[in-house]
Amino acid sequence: MDLRGTISPDCPLLVLAIAEEAAYLDSDLPVLLTGMGKVNAAGALAATLARVPLPSAVVNLGTAGALHSGWSGTYEVGSVVQHDLDTEFIRRLTGQIVGAPLALAGAGPVLATGDQFIADDKVRADLATRAQLVDMEGYAVASTARRFGVPVRLIKHVSDEAGDGADRTWKESVDGCARTLARWVRDHL
Q1: Residue 184 needs a FRET pair 20 to 30 A away by CA distance; which of 64, 77, 83, 173 works?
Q2: What pTM was computed for the model?
Q3: Rounded CA gap, 104 and 110, in Å?
Q4: Considering only the top CATH level, what class is 2-188?
Q5: What is the predicted pLDDT for the residue at 89?
Q6: pLDDT computed for residue 168 by the predictor
C-alpha cells in the first residue's frame, strides 16, 4: 500500500492497483496504490478510509481486459460483479446473499472482478456471457467505498482482449493505458 498526497473531504481519492497504471498522474489529487487483487484493494482502501477524513469520492482507475472482440477505449463501469465468487450457490446454501452485483453508473458496461488474470480463451468466453470487461480490483474498491458511505466510480481503460496472450498484450499496453487514464483525470476531475 502506498498513499501519495493528502486526503480531504474536498476532493476525490484516486485508487489504482500498481505504480505502472499511475505513472502519468500529475494532478494534485491523492493517489492510493493498493497492490493487485481483491484482498489487497479492499484491505488498503479500508485501512486508508478508517484513518483519514473521508474523500468526496473514490475513483478507481485501472486497466481491464475486454471480454468481447472490438472493445477498446475508456469506460465508466455501470455495474460490477465478482466472477470468482459463487453468489447463487452461497445463497442456496445459507439463505444469505453475499457478493451481489453492485449498480454504479447506470449505462456503462458490466465489469467482472476476480483474483484471476484472464489469459485463457475458454474462461474469457464464459465470462463474456455475464460482462463486457474484466479486472482484479473493481468490485473490492466499490464494495469497500460503499461500506464507508463514500461515492465510488470505476474508470477502466481496455488494455487487452482477455484470453490467450493477454499477459503479453497487457505488458505492452500498460504504459499507453496509464497515459490515457492520466488524461481522463485531467479532463474529468
Answers
A1: 83
A2: 0.91
A3: 10
A4: alpha beta
A5: 64
A6: 66
Return the residue matching grid coordinates 479486472. Answer: 135
DSSP run (H or E) holding 36: none
Is residue 154 within 8 A of residue 64, CB to CB? The reply is no
Residue 178, all three cell numbers: 496509464
pLDDT digits (tens, 9 = 90+) for 10-59: 999 999 999 999 999 987 899 999 999 999 999 999 999 999 899 999 99
Residue 85 has pLDDT above 70, yes or no: no
CA distances from 27 to 6, 82, 123, 183 (A): 12, 31, 37, 10
In whole angstroms, give the CA distance from residue 71 to residue 133. Answer: 9
The structural domains of the chain, with segments of one domain joined by +, span: 2-188
Residue in 154, 113, 110, 114 with CA at minimum distance from that of residue 132:
110
